[in-house]
Task: inverse folding
């Protein structure tokens, strides 16, 4: 029904997609060395088919753009991105790089990642920074990485953020983003 689609989508992301992607991350990280025969069959559904995993992960990165200021839901979304989406993409790139016909989708993912890191990078904690840096390193090893300069700039910003964290157990400083909108 009209007017309910946003709420349904949010519920699906919260109750279905996030747990599924988090589970999938663990599967890939645990089994990637033991599934060589599954690789060829899996790659099209990862990179190039309509509604492939790459486009799902891109939408998750873009999902943070909604809303103003910092909220519990936003914090939860950032935790999910850094604990599941970024490590999953790093694992997928270790399996194999996107084929040429998927590069448009891939560029969209890299652009969404750049926007996410520009917005949230200054507030990430040490573990989240490690996750983002691992993915940037993997992206830089792609034969023709899209937005190579932007990726290098994001890595530099993450390095600066890491230098400002004196104690890894400290939470990143809270900052009101309300005036930025």
Result:
């Amino acid at each position: 029904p009209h007017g309910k689609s946003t709420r349904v989508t949010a519920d699906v992301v919260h109750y279905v997609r996030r747990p599924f992607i988090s589970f999938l991350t663990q599967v890939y990280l645990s089994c990637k060395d033991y599934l060589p025969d599954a690789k060829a069959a899996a790659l099209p559904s990862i990179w190039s088919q309509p509604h492939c995993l790459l486009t799902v992960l891109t939408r998750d990165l873009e999902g943070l753009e909604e809303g103003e200021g910092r909220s519990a839901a936003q914090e939860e979304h950032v935790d999910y991105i850094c604990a599941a989406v970024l490590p999953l993409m790093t694992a997928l790139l270790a399996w194999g790089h996107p084929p040429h016909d998927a590069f448009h989708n891939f560029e969209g993912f890299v652009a969404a990642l750049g926007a996410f890191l520009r917005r949230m990078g200054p507030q990430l904690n040490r573990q989240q920074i490690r996750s983002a840096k691992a993915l940037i390193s993997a992206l830089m090893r792609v034969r023709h990485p899209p937005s190579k300069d932007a990726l290098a700039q994001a890595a530099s910003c993450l390095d600066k953020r890491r230098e400002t964290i004196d104690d890894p157990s400290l939470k990143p400083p809270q900052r009101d983003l309300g005036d930025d909108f």
User: Anything to note?
Assistant: The chain has a mean pLDDT of 73. The first helix runs from residue 5 to 31. The chain is about 70% helix and 0% strand.
